[in-house]
């Protein structure tokens, strides 16, 4: 009986040892397989950015050679945040671009939604780096410091861009996200219709109902608005100029189908009986209350030409010089 008991105990101990060995072997295989699967389904993605800035655009827009340096500065990028969402639009990963404007990310294989926000202010950057959901990001609105009351923000103009990318293993995954400046730029020019018009002094110029905040990835209207003075570069017009005289530049976040944006300019005409004449210039084709749209990343040049006889129209379009005629004096 004692021998049978000893044999039974030995058999039980052997079965226990075999079970432990099998468990360890299976567990080891499972762990190796899991690690292999994860590594096999990941890929490195190189994210780069591109703007629509080029030397030809500067040459086309800067015909009077007064804004070239500022145009180049408008496309300067000081910092940028990259956010990646998977095929189910769930947040996957984020990062910031390096000094070379690149970011390498390790992502799981599959469809990705890649977003870039360049030159966010400190507060907006804090929101972006807090892993926002897909909906939160697409509903996100710029903040006060991103507009800087119409003055050029110290960190640069806010830009955004996005694209979809299928990330695949076993191949190069490189994406270049095109960026667009989120604001529209309005340049105010004045000119004389003839040498018979006396000198004109610009006392003030404002962009009325400029939008001071805007969506990062939508073109819908945001209702925060203000009267923003133009940063005046020149104030006294003495001669008839081929392309007019640039008075100043101002920015607004995009608007769609609005009627309230206008220019308010106060001038003194040296031959006028009264000084400080006010002119309201609406940004549409007939200087009326018809609706207009200002697109992000577009430059609009508005030219006000002063004649002794009344006539006039106004129109704005991308990189096209348009005239607005007003009566002054005479």
TrEMBL record:
InterPro entries: FimA_N. Gene3D superfamilies: 2.60.40.2580. Residues 64-176 form the Major fimbrial subunit protein N-terminal domain. Its main location: other. It is found in: Fimbrium. It comes from the Bacteria. Keywords: Fimbrium, Membrane, Signal, Transmembrane, Transmembrane helix. The keyword Protein biosynthesis does not apply. The chain crosses the membrane at residues 6-26. GO terms for cellular component: pilus. Belongs to the bacteroidetes fimbrillin superfamily. FimA/Mfa1 family. This is FimB/Mfa2 family fimbrial subunit. It comes from Jilunia laotingensis.
């Amino acid at each position: 009986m004692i021998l049978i008991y000893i044999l039974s105990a030995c058999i039980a101990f052997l079965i226990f040892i075999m079970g432990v060995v099998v468990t360890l072997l299976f567990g080891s295989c499972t762990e190796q397989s899991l690690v292999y699967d994860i590594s096999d389904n990941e890929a490195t993605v190189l994210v780069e950015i591109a703007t629509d800035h080029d030397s030809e655009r500067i040459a086309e827009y800067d015909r009077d050679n007064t804004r070239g340096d500022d145009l180049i500065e408008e496309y300067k990028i000081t910092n940028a945040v990259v956010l990646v969402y998977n095929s189910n639009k769930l947040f996957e990963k984020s990062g910031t671009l390096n000094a070379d404007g690149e970011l390498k990310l390790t992502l799981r294989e599959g469809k990705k939604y890649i977003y870039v926000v360049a030159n966010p202010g400190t507060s907006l950057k804090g929101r972006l780096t807090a892993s926002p959901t897909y909906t939160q990001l697409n509903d996100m609105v710029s903040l006060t410091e991103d507009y800087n009351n119409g003055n050029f923000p110290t960190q640069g103009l806010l830009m955004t861009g996005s694209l979809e990318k299928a990330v695949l293993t076993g191949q190069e995954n490189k994406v270049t996200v095109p960026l667009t400046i989120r604001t529209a730029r309005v340049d105010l020019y004045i000119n004389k219709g003839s040498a018979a018009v006396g000198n004109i002094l610009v006392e003030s110029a404002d962009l009325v109902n400029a939008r001071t905040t805007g969506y990062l990835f939508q073109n819908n209207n945001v209702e925060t608005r203000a009267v923003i003075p133009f940063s005046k570069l020149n104030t006294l017009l003495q001669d008839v100029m081929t392309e007019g005289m640039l008075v100043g530049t101002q920015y607004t976040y995009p608007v769609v189908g609005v009627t309230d944006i206008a220019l308010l300019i106060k001038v003194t005409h040296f031959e006028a009986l009264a000084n400080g004449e006010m002119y309201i210039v609406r940004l549409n084709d007939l200087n009326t209350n018809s609706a207009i749209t200002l697109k992000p990343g577009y430059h609009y040049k508005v030219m006000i030409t002063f004649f002794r006889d009344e006539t006039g129209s106004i129109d704005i379009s991308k990189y096209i010089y348009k005239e607005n005629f007003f009566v002054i004096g005479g």
